[in-house]
Amino acid sequence: MKTLMLGNEAFARGLYEAGCKVVSSYPGTPSTEITEAAAKYDEIYAEWAPNEKVAMEVALGASIGGARSFCGMKHVGLNVAADPLYTAGYTGVTGGMVIAVADDPGMHSSQNEQDSRHHAIASKTMMIEPSDSAECKEFAKAAFDLSEKFDVPVIVRLSTRVSHSQSSVELCERVARENIPYEKKPQKYVMMPGNAIRRHPIVEDRMKAIAEYAETSNLNKVEMNDTKIGVITAGISYQYAKEALGKNASYLKLGIVNPMPVQIIKDFAAKCDKVYVIEELDDIIETHCKKNGIDVIGKELFSLMGEISQTIVAEKILGKKAEYLTFEDNVPIRPPVMCAGCPHRGLFYCLHKLGVMVSGDIGCYTLGATAPLCAMDSTICMGASISGLHGFNKARGAEAEKHSVAVIGDSTFMHSGMTGLVNVAYNATNSTVIILDNSITGMTGHQQNPTTGKNLKGDPAYAVDLEALCHAMGINSVRVVDPYHMTETEAVIKEELEKEEPSVIISRRPCALLKYVKHNPPLKVNSDKCVGCKQCLKIGCPAISIHNGKCVIDHTQCVGCGICKEMCRLGAIAE
Amino acid sequence: METKSIMIVGVGGQGSLLASRIIGNVLLSQGFDVKVSEVHGMSQRGGSVVTYVKYGDEVCSPVVEKGEADIIISFEQLEAARYVSYLKKGGHIVTSTQQIDPMPVITGAAEYPENIIGKLETMGVDVIAVDALSLAEQAGTSKASNVVLMGVVSTKMSFDEEVWQKALEQCVPAKFLELNKKAFALGREVK
Question: Is B50 on the interface with A (CB under 8 A)?
């Protein structure tokens, strides 16, 4: 039976059919749905780990324990997990170990546009790259076989368009697998220098063996059509090339992107008049070709930035220009915003009003940087808000400590904010850290985390007590506020900024989109009282706009949070 | 058959994912090769969102580019204007007349263009403008405007109503099915 599946769902199906037993991941767009879908199969144990490093170590542990295991993450997550990855490259595996990393060319939902293939090269592991949902399933299964065959963790590289496109998939049965019996192998798994130095030559030999295998593997495919144009490509770029050029070109689609074959590329190139390398982001296939003396055209035509598309391929290779209509008026942009009723809004309005330096982090609350709140000064990576604030305050001294805060979500705090907070206490800055506890991992679409009291399957789980945790880390002043009450919230922030000690403010209210959160009736503007002063527009609520000089509240969006009521001095907003 | 392209555009949170899944299932049941491309994450938070549905004998790229869409289904007027450049010559736009001010309009940094539908028609575009929000509220919830528009679009495509009903059953949770069927029926009645 054929079913439409997201690339991520199909990948999870592949895990299931391959007999994968243990899954541990941290959510990150565009990779999240793999683990959510895997959790729906009762035969798979699946969990959200606090971060990607933990997830990968869990997967490696499960592999050492003899099971087929998996961990999934977005591209920047692999940076967090790079430490275990690079040494897992040395140890190899017992049960097959598969890692999915989803790149985000075009940065639909990311802070950078890094190309994860560099990690496969640097960690000397194998990387394969599917180009649609059917391949996601097949490649996930092949990855386990290859992992066990070559004693290597296998990374499957996905991208936004592969992960988040649905196409048809044929389902098969699961092949259950017994754990491989456990044997103590310190030479393989205890990576102290004396052992690791003996593993390195094994790793180099293994990479040669995989490159040899790549010459004949059916994961690499040649399609000969017209030979005037030859295209060497991988992943989603193959689909763009095929749509633009069809039968007017021949294709070498590389399923194995690390290590790459040489001879089949040479043979393919020899048959074509002109050979193009079409790959998103960096020039990795192109460099491999050129290193091996194969004459190809790549980044001199195609950008190192953003996504490729059929239009770009048609334009660059065939010189075809797309024809289209243009709307006459200027169409205002529609950037993402905090939702109506978002608990972060009240907190960010207070920070905006206080004019403090805000060291930000990764999550929905990064939207606090946008107009009209404009209350964020930096956003780097998961956890950097707290450690960054500590550095900022060390550089600028006592006066800065009174005018700066860090903001970080509950899930991000668990991910990698805790170590930064330990550093604040241990190395002593009077930093003020605000934990935005909305009781969920919001931006990636509502995943549980160690503070929520539920696990990935939705079952009750131990919930970290944030107040006790902060106390234990050496923070004496820990306060809790409700961001819907802005006057109180502002007062608490002012008090904590003044204190001659580090402090944590927990801004606590569940995400307004959570199903269990009860909404109040939508608010209305009394147009007799409203003078159109626009004070209520300063909170940047998408439900409030101004029409004919009076404020209007969109009843389809308003959840009655009441923040705008607090803004209106004339009492024009009411139920 | 040559590949056909449909775009579903709107504001994050308006239910474009459900709409694309309904159409995707209709097309799959008719034996087409289908690809549906969604956007998750950041842009879902009230930003401009686009979903692509493509079908034919063999679909390669999952994305729709400028000048390629046979039909654009828009949940909000400004989004219809934003994406009209994606419409193929002779293509159709089905749009809700709903207006949602984007943040630059709310803050006063930009203006919401006037008479969008009139301007699209002047460009020679075939536009069907529907007050999907009122029809959805008539069916029981403002959240069902996506399914109202599916009802309208179903009359523009050559598949039996039964096929659409089946796709609704596959994609909508049982407890909301009746409500959505009502919304779909109201959409089909739009002339």
Answer: no
